[in-house]
Design goal:
Length: 508
């Protein structure tokens, strides 16, 4: 049986920057409800919301102080229930962000843990004695810079944090932690949530002896043996409910990434996020290799997925430029596997520079540029807020808003909507087979096949036209192109693919 999340397209909402309903400059849940018509019109099947839980926002919600309540700046539990109902009413699923690796230092578990060495919550976190010279247990650094250990004077030990000191890591070897966190999953599943994106899943376990590999900062605290057992428990918890999904945030080489699918007997997450297209240099040969390598590494029971951007990565339109961003969108939406579209990429948003005085992100390099608020209309602050946006927005950005692009046949938004509709209409694209086709230098070409139809995709990654022989049967037509105005042409023999053009061809 084909599941909704295999056919479907996921859209990542970064709630802080999506739509502000109350003028405080920060996006919120009622703002998302207001924009559900847009998401339905666009044609996405699910939204993943970056964290909306109670949090001091040291890392913008990835520091959770209460896993069962909503941060007041985003709204209330009732607002979330309304959002879920309204989304479901439009056939859109809602996926939450589960942050199991660490909590906020304001979480009651951590305040208890640091209160005394004898507290029942002490061993929910990772505490360790200093080395004889008083220095931290080892030289591990935090993902955000500086030591990963913070000294706690009252109890005279260090605690471990892979990210900010305000984000102490939980001890996932402790069964009480596992039980409490699985309960969090059940709490939301009971409330009708359709699944979770799981934050830094591959980092959950750390070497118990704090052994450090001087050659590799993350050895001993990434992808450790035993982690699949934990993933399987999360999956078993989720599988007690119908039609729910787990997506793992996992930055690992493909050979290791695919282990997170688990095995048919002991499944892991449904989709270990595949960030191959974010890291690959924008070159046809490298992209072909990345696709082939990923397809070859997938176990038989695994369903693929693709990602072009998220709230931690420079925008795709900035990385590859406006012309190739259209080609990239066609790639994302025609490859085999579930695509995730990052909010704003569908209108070609670019990284927005943020002056030092307005900097918000604690991480280095700053992720503020890709988090700049969504542009809904060509008015000051893009129709995102009536107040002062929490991050600066370009004063004006002609053409780059939903309102301006909605009815423009040549816009990036129309291209996205068109490709989403084509994917929905063509089983070959949504769930069909995949085969790379031979292609000239600078071109990525592949065939997608269903029982009755085969579609060919040819993407020109260069800024000059190229002739491509697409060996389909006669009577084929252009079904879609990234070049405005070009579609529905019959194809005779070789096809001229314009500079920076991507095409989908198939039977008329
Ligand atoms: C990954 C999240 O996507 C990122 O935004 C966050 O800072 C870290 N995990 C820590 O939770």
């Amino acid at each position: 049986m084909v599941e909704w999340w295999q056919r479907g397209v996921i859209y990542q909402v970064y709630p802080r920057s999506f739509a502000d309903s109350n003028g405080d400059g920060i996006g919120d849940l009622p703002g998302i409800v207001d924009r559900l018509d847009y998401l339905e019109w666009l044609g996405v099947d699910a939204i993943w919301l970056s964290p909306i839980f109670r949090s001091p926002m040291a890392d913008f919600g990835y520091d959770v102080a209460d896993y069962r309540d909503i941060a007041p700046i985003f709204g209330t539990l009732a607002d979330l229930d309304r959002l879920v109902d309204a989304a479901h009413g439009r056939g859109i699923r809602v996926i939450l962000d589960f942050v199991p690796n660490h909590t906020s230092d304001q979480h009651p578990w951590f305040t208890a843990s640091r209160s005394s060495r004898d507290d029942p919550h002490r061993h929910w976190y990772l505490w360790a004695d200093p080395r004889p010279d008083g220095s931290p247990p080892n030289g591990w650094t935090s993902m955000f810079g500086g030591s990963a250990w913070t000294w706690d004077e009252p109890t005279a030990q260090f605690y471990y944090h892979g990210f900010l000191p305000q984000q102490p890591d939980l001890d996932w070897r402790n069964p009480a932690v596992q039980a409490a966190m699985l309960d969090v999953l059940r709490f939301w599943l009971d409330r009708g949530i359709d699944g979770f994106r799981i934050d830094v899943l591959w980092l959950l376990l750390k070497d118990e002896t704090w052994r450090q590999d001087p050659a590799n900062q993350w050895a001993g605290r990434a992808d450790l043996p035993g982690i699949q057992e934990l993933v399987a428990r999360m999956r078993a918890t989720t599988d007690a409910y119908d039609g729910r999904i787990l997506i793992g945030e996992i930055y690992l080489p493909v050979e290791r990434l695919v282990a997170y699918y688990g095995t048919p007997d002991r499944p892991g997450v449904h989709l270990p996020y595949n960030f191959g297209l974010i890291h690959v240099p924008w070159d046809a040969g490298r992209i072909r290799d990345a696709i082939a390598g990923y397809e070859a590494a997938l176990p038989g029971h695994a369903w693929p997925n693709w990602v072009l951007g998220n709230h931690d990565q420079s925008r795709v339109a900035t990385r590859v430029g406006a012309a190739q961003a259209r080609v990239a969108a066609m790639l994302l939406l025609t490859l085999r596997g579930t695509p995730t579209v990052y909010q704003g990429d569908e209108i070609g948003m670019v990284d927005v520079p943020v002056p030092p005085a307005r900097r918000a992100d604690p991480a280095e390099p700053s992720r503020d540029p890709e988090r700049s608020p969504m542009r809904w209309s060509p008015v000051p602050n893009g129709g995102f807020t009536t107040g002062e946006p929490w991050l600066p927005m370009a004063a004006s950005d002609p053409g780059r808003s939903v309102e301006e692009q909605r009815d423009d046949p040549g816009s990036m938004l129309t291209l996205h909507r068109r490709l989403l509709a084509l994917r929905r209409a063509e089983p070959a694209l949504a769930i069909g087979g995949f085969e790379l086709l031979p292609s000239p230098d600078g071109v990525v070409a592949y065939r997608r096949t269903s029982a009755s139809r085969s579609l060919d995709v040819a993407l020109n990654l260069r800024a000059r036209p190229v002739q491509v022989a697409l060996p389909g049967p006669p009577g084929r037509r252009l079904l879609a192109s990234t070049v405005p105005g070009r579609a529905d042409e019959p194809i005779e023999g070789r096809l001229r693919v314009e500079a920076d053009e991507g095409v989908v061809t198939g039977p008329a």
